[in-house]
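To close the chapter, one final illustration. This time we ask the reader to focus less on the individual chains and more on the assembly as a whole: which components sit near each other, and how the overall shape emerges from the parts.
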Amino acid sequence: MECQTEEQIKQHAKELFFSRGALDASTQEIADFAGVNRTLVNYYFRSKKNLFRIVYNEAIMEMRKSYARIYVSDISFREKVEALIDFTAEFRENYPFLEIFNIQETGKLNNQLETVLQPTSMQETAFFLKEIEEEMQKGTIPVYEPVNFLINIFSLISFPIVMKPIFREIFCISTEEQYHKIYNQRKEMVMTILFNNVNQ
Amino acid sequence: MECQTEEQIKQHAKELFFSRGALDASTQEIADFAGVNRTLVNYYFRSKKNLFRIVYNEAIMEMRKSYARIYVSDISFREKVEALIDFTAEFRENYPFLEIFNIQETGKLNNQLETVLQPTSMQETAFFLKEIEEEMQKGTIPVYEPVNFLINIFSLISFPIVMKPIFREIFCISTEEQYHKIYNQRKEMVMTILFNNVNQ
DNA sequence: ACCTTTGTTGACAATTTTGTCAAACAAAGT
DNA sequence: ACTTTGTTTGACAAAATTGTCAACAAAGGT
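The assembled structure is written out below.
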């Protein structure tokens, strides 16, 4: 028995939640979207919350593993930053609602989601933060709290994707292509911001 | 009759939704939080959706008016940017979940929220965008698509607040104060990024 | 005092959503 | 052919949530 139904539900739930933003989808909607009987959602995952948890953990794990890999990979610092930018942009494009769900859940009191942050991912992050500090001492990049360097990358790359619909409205950007053109200009700009900005 | 109950419900709903992130709160929870009978929510606002709409519109209007005021105020460009940074930080601190709600709703098909973007706010935005362009020509700030200048401000200031719980987890920032310290360093840093970064 | 308007409440009905269960089904092994 | 195992289904019950309604209270004006 191949048990592809379980995978099918998971994949479709993932897309429904984190790509389309239907975080409040009912089990019926989830089942319909996956093309299966509603009862199967309960059969394979017991409850909706459980399905959430599993799918969410998988997505987060996937993401954090990728980051960890980049943090300790055997390339130059500048290349690492480029890789971080590319991966962040691509991942956010695929799952624009993942962090939104994350934020919402993290803030809640009945936070059912166990912390997925495996100690590995932490070590890699610490490693890269040390590398950032070294680059600051070398004078390659401006000096401030190392985490702020990472926060800058994530902010400058992620936020414009997450906020796309709102920015398009505020700035009257009618077509998707127009926004895409503006966004694409950013990757180079962000590199300039991160590196060229050594003051004094 | 002073009709303070209506205001009471609105204020508490606003806090519940946009400060605490309980976007999926039931009418019962809303009523409880406001300290009134549940039926009164329907009495004053007909339906929960309607309450959402009203409260949301008020918050957004308040925000956009403030931005518009800054955009056309009679201060130097640099001071405007400073004012934008301060206001954005403060407003996001108060309502960290406002945009999240916005994003979720905007993405949905049955988007009940009429566009609140009054033409006024648009004019002011356009005005400031032109000012940004002029500054680019003067050489005060690096040259790229003017909207990207604004997007940079919003991203660098808003995202770290919205993502606070996640960043604290990822970077192992145990105390609120620690994060606050790191965040406060950003305002100055962002100014440096926005202005000092004129390449060649 | 009376009437009207406004505000408030508890009870009710309708709808939605969830999870469970027993029965049906398919595929494989014996 | 028979059993076992895992999968799928429809029907059911329980719970939660929503909006409405009629009754009740408070206040103010006439």
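Residues 1, 26-28, 38-39, 42, 46-48 of chain B lie near DNA strand D (CB under 10 Å from a C1'). The radius of gyration of chain B is 20 Å. With these observations in hand, you are ready for the problems at the end of the chapter.
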